[in-house]
Amino acid sequence: MRKRVLIVGGGTAGWLTAGYLAKRLGADLADGVAITLVESRDIGVLGVGEGTFPTIRRTLATIGVDEAELVRRCGATFKQGARFVHWQRAPGTPGRDHYMHPFQVAEAPGGLELLPYWLSGAAGDAEWDEVSTPQKAAADAARAPKLPTHPDYLGPLNYAFHFDAVALAGLLRERAVANGVTHLIDTVTHVALADSGAIERVDTERHGTLTADLYVDCTGFRAELIGKAMGVPFRSCRDVLFCDRALAAQLPYETADAPIASQTISTAQEAGWIWDIGLDRRRGIGHVYSSNHSDDTAAERALRRYLGPRGKQAEVRRFRFEAGFREVNWRRNCVAVGLSSGFFEPLEATGIAFAEVSAAMIANLFPWSGDHETSARQFNANLLRRYERALDFIKLHYCLSERRDTDFWRDNVADTSNTASLLELLDRWRHRWPNELDIDPQVDIFTEASWQYVLYGMGWRTDLSARAGALRYRDDARRAFGEVRRQVGVALANLPTHRALVEAAQRRG
Ligand code: FAD
């Protein structure tokens, strides 16, 4: 008999998982897995989640979404990384006011590692994000990461997307259904457990009882299956990541040909930060903040100040959340994906990235033989480490700040709000730079390049004086830094504007 998967929830996580599993587990094949997704019409989707990580390209390609169609249908634009403004220093303080976490990794001829040479001054006063790749210069000039003639999901500069999350869920739904997923619109009213603790069935308002071999909880923060029915606890990380509220608004461009930013702009505030994401016809702007350090009125005032006079009438949506995750995400025959599994503030777009990882792991560990426990053990151990590592990476953006202007920043830099594992990493990096030994590719979403960009963007200095004499390729490194400067010129001369790439893709899609 065919194995059956029931996905409860039709937000980004639900449809992404459905579309992905449909392809990987053969939902349209007689001997493949039968996949049903049930979503409630009465319980809305979150509908935010506009920034992604480069892994999304492979996920979308697997699901069968074309890049041009994504751009046309979902207002999608090309994201080359994130620009962090006022994270290191408060406004009005002398010194650099921003840095970038680009997606492009530094590459020098002959595999020479440039970072130690930059650390020991071979690039003069230039910052690491400027001399390691031409991507910052391209993104700052609102250039595209590729030409319209490059193939789908490939380009000379690494990229992800920004998109309208509601439109994306619609496109993914279409693909998933075309790939064999059965779609039910209904509300799950009860989840019944067997004596073993496994889910026996779910009851719905209109389709009666539904049963499956594997239940996927994509019900968002409600966590109807894994949380409410199975009682799997949630581990709060609020003592590390303080933000627990968000306000989101939309702002149309002033003119139809206004430049579109090709990076998420994240501007630190007194008690949080504001995201600014350029889609094709509008910007999505939101304020993420800590309710322990601010209140809703002050937070909205800061958002409206950022939006400016044109945002006076903008409608503001409100969200509450708690940073954290479940240590067990696969119990018996139930696995959680998306917000039901965990959530960190959207600083590095980890929400959708975690849903991608979880969907891929479910496909790889699918219990064809019926042995859920073996799959669950591996899934849980892996995801737990991923959450812990991502938590440290997000906290890294805060803990090195020189800001002391508010309690939010003072509390963020206090050792008591940092994890022991992050303090241990920082200890390592006093005298050596982050390298591949600090990274486990099986659990780290962020590579050593990402850690380096944030660490040095926030002004950390690794002292290499003891080994300065062993850095023998200084001249090669200087030439390589010169080569990056040359590439900046080539990129600015040849890459189209970001808007031109988006419009070319819209015409194709
Ligand atoms: P939801 O969107 O909440 O969907 C839940 C689904 O479950 C709905 O379809 C609902 O109808 C259904 N449901 C619930 N209960 C039942 C029931 N009883 N019966 C049937 N159906 C039910 N992530 C990023 O990667 N990048 C970002 O830039 C980003 N920005 C964010 C900004 C904010 C302010 C917040 C709060 C989150 C952000 N995220 C971001 C996270 C991202 O929004 C989520 O990861 C993503 O939307 C997935 O949500 P979901 O599908 O898990 O849940």
UniProtKB/TrEMBL annotation:
Pfam families according to UniProt: Trp_halogenase (PF04820)
UniProt xrefs under InterPro entries: FAD/NAD-bd_sf, Flavin-dep_Halogenase_NPB, Flavin_halogenase, Trp_halogen
Gene3D superfamilies membership: FAD/NAD(P)-binding domain
Protein's recorded name: Tryptophan 7-halogenase
Organism for this UniProt entry: Sphingomonas citri
Lineage: Bacteria, Pseudomonadati, Pseudomonadota, Alphaproteobacteria, Sphingomonadales
